Amino acid sequence: MSLAIFPWILVALSGLGLYLLAYQVVDLVADLLAGLTSLLRRRFRPVALARLKELQEQAGVQAPQEGNARSRTLLTLAGLTQWRPFWIAAAILAALLLADSLRSPLAFAVVLAGGELYRSTYRSKRMQRLNEDAGSLIVQFSSRYPITRSLGKTLKDVLNALPGGEVRSAVEDCLKRLQMNQKPDEAMKRVYALGHPALNRFARLLGSVQDTNQDVFMKTLEILRKEVDGRQDLHRQARQSLTLVRSTTRLLQAVAVAALIVGSLLPNWRNYFIASPQNWLLFTGMLGIALLSSFYMEAELHQLEV
Predict the structure, then answer these.
(1) Alpha-carbon torsion 253, 259, 265, 271, what sign?
(2) Please, how many CA atoms are within 13 Å of residue 248, restricted to the half-sphere of its CB?
(3) Which of 33, 29, 238 is nearest to 131 (CA)?
(4) How many Cβ atoms are within 10 Å of 135's Cβ, its own excluded?
(5) Domain locations in the chain as residue ranges
(6) pLDDT tens digit string along 20-74?
(7) Which of 93, 137, 148, 181 has the fewest CB atoms below 10 angstroms from its CB?
(8) 157-181 pLDDT, tens per residue?
């Protein structure tokens, strides 16, 4: 009887392996499609928005207040999803709603890990876009400033070449502050607020343009441009490795979650874990290890991307 069960075990393991492989393939394809969609959106959205603005100006139509209120609501919700206490509260609420000795801690861990996964994915996409826009900004500025020798004029010219996004919005704010005769260092506050290493150095450089010799300024700007070019090349080379590491991480997370869900649902395993406090502590301990490991791996991926 014991030998007859081995083929079933092999079939079950093979099915699990095929499922995990298919899941990773679908995840990778979804990632590639998301990147392609983001590229197309960034390429064509500014043109569409500019055309829509022209049509609205020609027709004298203003955006309805309901649409503005809806946009503010969506932005508020998006901001909340990047706030870790929001996911902690959601995890506690899910645990209280289930009110089960095994499913409550499992729901708490899954919601919290899912929130961290969402935050990590959002940070990854945001950092990738900041890297691209920061490189474009610095390259465009370094190629135009030697001709104009004017900070405001150069930023205005660069603004026309930047795609919509956080970097463009920060440059627009900087340009407005400069037009209000603020000092360059004070005008760069929005650029500092983006928290990007290359943009921080760029903002410090522009902030000291009035107190720096022009030859020194140009040499420093050229060094920064080369550094940004090297950083972009490094990110392109590391993207394949990061994709492999990220896929492996997602695979381990999926296996851990699947094992814990099965353990909480199958009657035999469920009865075992609730049979004694020691067994229940074993289950919660495994949950804690899986949760902390997930947080650790997401933090390491974030450090690699930065």
Answers:
(1) negative
(2) 8
(3) 238
(4) 18
(5) 85-305
(6) 666 666 666 666 676 666 666 666 655 555 555 554 444 443 444 444 555 556 5
(7) 181
(8) 888 888 878 888 888 888 888 888 8
